[in-house]
Amino acid sequence: MGFGRNPHVAKAEAAEMKASESTDASAYEQALREAGRQWERAADREADGKRKQVYAANAERARATADAPRPDGDLVN
């Protein structure tokens, strides 16, 4: 992590990756909720208005995806 970088972006992306690789619905939902929290923290920390809006939108998307049922085709066997 370099000086001036927002560490919550990397954490949010890692949580989204964890969700995509999860094998059960509860782990999927939990990882997406964590991604939403991290995107929200990234937005709160961001000074640039455009990036702040993108991060806030990512947080909303992650939460909405966690609330929706997981498509059966995405489960890893």
Word description of this protein:
The protein is mainly alpha-helical and 77 residues long. The protein has one domain. Helices cover 71% and strands 0% of the residues. It is built from three helices and no strands. The chain has helices spanning 7-21, 25-45, 49-67. The chain is elongated and about 40 Å long. The model has no long low-confidence stretch (mean pLDDT 89).
Provide key terms for this protein.
77 residues; mainly alpha; 3 helices; elongated
Distance between the termini: 34 Å
Compute the gyration radius: what is it? 13 Å
Q: Identify low-pLDDT runs.
A: none
- How would you classify the helix and strand content by structural class? mainly alpha
The helical percent reads: over 70%
Shape: elongated
pLDDT averaged over residues: 89
Tally of separate domains: 1
The fraction of residues in strands falls at under 5%
Topology:
Blueprint: H1 7-21, H2 25-45, H3 49-67
Structure summary:
The protein has 77 residues and is mostly helical. The protein is built from 3 helices and no strands. The protein has helices at residues 7-21, 25-45, 49-67.
